[in-house]
Structure formats: structure tokens, C-alpha cells
Amino acid sequence: MPPSLVNDDPHKREQRLLERIKELDLAHRNRLRATGVGQALSLRYLRQLAQRLVTPPKTVRAGRVDAPAPGEMSLAPVGHACVQIVTSRARVLTDPLLTEFVFGLRRAIMPALTGPDRDDVTCILLSHGHRDHLHPPSLRRLPKTSLVVAPPGFETTLARLGFPQVVTLAPEESCQHGDLTLTAVAARHEGGGRGAGANGYVVQGPEVAVFFAGDTGYFSGFQEIGRRFRPDAVLLPIGGYAPLPLRATHMSPLDAAYALEDLQARLLVPIAFGVLPLGYEPLDEPPRWLRAACEARGLTERLALLAPGERVTLRRPT
Questions:
Q1: CA gap 71, 87 in Å, rounded
Q2: Which residue would you say has higher pLDDT here, 190 or 1?
Q3: Which alpha helices (H) appear in the chain, and where do they start and end?
Q4: Residue 124 β-bridge partners
Q5: Residue 224's pLDDT is what?
Q6: How far apart are CA 189 and CA 161, in angstroms?
Q7: Which end of the chain is flanked by fewer CB atoms within 10 Å, N or C?
Q8: Which of 48, 65, 193, 175 is nearest to 120 (CA)?
């Protein structure tokens, strides 16, 4: 990790952050500045949409994600931004997206979630109100006994969906669930609702912690989250970044590699790629670019590129 990221001098931290933002902006401009790239990307996107409509989604055989030993935490991507975070006393599902179609888009891979795991969900963590993150048809499939944690502004929507236990958290607010402390943190993204915001969340267990970013652009908050919480693993989105203006509120794979350094985490599990064509980039581009970015920055051993249905279990570092 670059020493300047952990320097306690606020002025030096701010200087280094500005340098990193300039590095990222230049790298992305160089990658996407080809003449006529906007038109080429838009035509490619339309072809990608047409192909998805006539191609059935791939199904994966999802195994049951059993509760790990006390003090451990299992992460199991379901697809898009939906991940199971499982401990011995809680089963959290982030931004559930469990249907084949979402606002007319057909997913490339069906959700990797067994019926028993779905029925065992104890907490639903919602980052913001965009349809691919707060998806009413998917929420209707989940136990109404689940605690729902969301940013302020979605109380009425969630009550109409039949969830009696709703906790709204603004950034810096926390709540307890099972053996977990759930803390809302800021995100650089629109909330997707009238007056509503967007959250990331730090999910802290007795021994390990994970940061779920939801949907966000690269911003200074990653360094602060890293200093305060030192998460063991981070769930960072890496899709929907092309064309270039989308980077204001979405991260590219290169942004995620820089954010991993800022967050000082042991492990990056990328999310929000390969399922829905939300940006102009090909569905298979984000993981390839992320691998290359991590190799270039010496981060390969900290990358866990999990497909839906795979999982990793976190333990306290020895």
C-alpha cells in the first residue's frame, strides 16, 4: 500500500488524493478518447441489448451457503450487487435482484440463490432506490420477518411491500442485527428517490468486517472508511462506467483497484458486473480490466474474482 495513503497529515492526504484523482481521470480519458468512440460504443450497446433479449440467461447451480463458525463471515455473490453476507447468527442479502428481467433488460446470469437460503434471510441491506438495487418484485420474494435497512426516504415504499421492521440510516448512523453492527457510510451516487440518498455500509462482525459500497463513483470517502473501519473485505462495483460521464457515479475496474488501496482491505470482491448491460462496455470487459489493473498495481493476491454461486469465508487474521 502506498505509504502516503496512511499518512496522518491531512494536508498530505488531500494532496495525494488529488493526485490520484488526476491519475484516474487521465487514464480513463486515454482509454476512451478514440475518435468517434461515443457512436461506436452506442451501436455496440444496442447490439448487446438485442443479443441479450434473444439469449436465455445462464443458470448456475447454487449450493447452500451454510452458516460459518462463530466469528467468521462468508461472502457469496448472488448476481449484480446482490451478495449474501452470512455469519453464525445472521444472513444479510444486499440489494436483492432475483428476477430474469429488470426494466426491460434481460440478465445474462440467473441469480445464484437457493430457496432455503432465500427463506433464511434475516436482514435486507438496501443501498439506494434505483430499480436494479431496490427492486420490489424481488423484495416480495423474501421473508417479511427480515429486518430492512435503507437510507431515509423509502419508509413508505417498504411498508407497502409488507415489511414491518424497517430501519433507516443516514451516513454515520448504526444499528445492531444478530452478531453484526451495520453502519451507513456516504456514497457518491444519486439516491433514486425523491429526497432520498444513497448509502454504503460497513458490516462488522465480532472478528471481521466487510464494506459493501452499493453503487458509487470513486471519491475521498474511501480513505476515511479505510482509516476508521479497516474492513477485511470490500464489495466494490466495477460495471456501468462507459461512456466516460458515467464515472461521476459509477466505478470502473481501475477505480476499484485504487479504492482497494484507499480502503486498506485484505480482499476485494467485485460486484455489479457481467449480469446486466447497464453501461456501453461489453459484459466481459470489467473482470478482464480489473485483473490487469490489479496485476499492474501488485494487488493480485488481494483480488477474489467470484462468480455467482461461489463464496469466500473470512477469518480473523493470524
A1: 7
A2: 190
A3: 10-32, 37-54, 115-119, 136-139, 155-160, 221-229, 253-263, 285-296
A4: 93, 148
A5: 95
A6: 24
A7: C
A8: 65
**Residue 117: partners with Cβ closer than 8 Å, 6 or more residues away:** 62, 64, 65, 84, 91
Per-residue pLDDT at 178: 96
Count Cα atoms within 13 angstroms, Cβ side, for 181.
13
pLDDT for 35 equals: 36
pLDDT in tens, 260-289: 999 999 999 999 999 998 888 889 999 999
Q: What angle do CA 136, 307, 2 make, to 5 degrees?
A: 105
Q: What Rg, from alpha-carbon coordinates, does the chain have?
A: 19
- Residue 259 in contact with residue 222, Cβ under 8 Å? yes
Where residue 36 falls among pLDDT bands split at 50, 70, 90? Answer: very low
Instruction: Return the SS3 of 121.
Output: coil
